[in-house]
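We give this protein:

***
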Amino acid sequence: MVDGTFIKKNRNKVFATVALLMTLVCYSVSSPIGSGPDTDFHLANIWCGWGEAQGLCENQGRINGVPSAEVPFMFQICDERTIESFPSCEFETEHPESQFLRTQSGLDQNLYYKIMRVFASENPVTGVIQIRILNSVIASLILLLILTLSTRRLRFAGLAAISFSSVPNILQYTTSVNPRSWSILSVSTSWIFLYSHLESREESRRVRRGQLVAFLFAAFLAFATRIDASIMVVATSALVYLSCRFRPEQLKLRTSLTGLSLIIFLYFALQFFPRILGLFSIGIPQGYERLQYSIFQIIHIPESVADWWGYRVGQSGNGPGIVGIIGLLLFSTNLVFALQNSDIKQRVIFSVNSFIVFAMLTKSTIALGGIIPARGIYSLGLVAPLLGITIASSKSNFQFMTSMGNRKVAIALLGFAHAISFYSWMEFHTRRGKDLGFYQHLSLDSNWWWDTWISPNFVFLAGALLFPVFLTYAWKSIPLKLME
């Protein structure tokens, strides 16, 4: 039971957690249940997570070779996608009681679908809202654990990583029904707990046990959802271990041979797991030369990295281009500060971290069968560890966010960017994809999907104001001066 003493002692941490939770709740009700990519697929899998059930999941089979099932009517389908995400058809006022949606075969369903099946009901709106709010609670709980269990330096590094990676995409995915909500959260935060556990040798046994349990819980979120996210967690965890244990001056032949032997062992062990081994294979799509393909990826993958903040070539990202410019500039500035006075160890860690990002994006591009790099969303979870591990391994105690002036500027810019991206997100859904981005009518009172007294303007204002409140209290809980 949480008593008054804990709340008083950790007031800033509690206020930050509550503010984040309320921000995410605003996201949970900011868009219709069909918003987001592949939502029809994910909701059908959730409703069929326990197999067929009357009124929830019936007539599982194949339609035109695609696994499908009959579920309660959820949304209109337009050009094989939900109309809320791709409103290129006229909205229909009447609909049947059920519909067939594409699913995944039962053996391939992940644990996430089976867990979320608890919320499936004949009223999809209620179920979706419950799933979104649960995901909001999980994310807020992990933030509280970061602020209370992590070491001083890792709290700083972890909060910086979260602050400068959240807007706009991670916030939107965190509350979605998409399994990526768990996988991105896992990759973004699990490394913080492991790093703290490996560093905090002088902490009490209870604290270290809590750090380990928190790491296992955060890592579980990835293993319960996506295999690519699981590999990212393994890769970032290995990188954290390397950062904590690697000593260039102590590198000996025996240590090198041990590491090489481990790599060889893992290679042969993977031969017994073809599905996992396939993720590490590099097969260039037909029609392209290997050299051509490699050079093209090296040159253009940075464009996909910019997509982490919704900034895409041609200004076709998630929200106005200024959001991406602010996100990219703040991230880069923090990275430059973190690399001050870098030694060979930090440079090795940063290089390996960057290679992991490049490898994941290249693999995603190959899986799509083209030469144009895949969207940054496929590696979105890696943005936080790329910055956070670099800060945690930095030899400099002078970081961008160790200045009160810099903190105020950063929070103001992030709050502004978040307000714009949140408005654009809600504008798209309330205006059904029409007349976007010109701000002719600032009010969002148009096609509100949720039939309650809560207006879209109230949801927007609450979410826009609460996010900088979260950042303010979270950073107030972090001392300006870093310890060695």
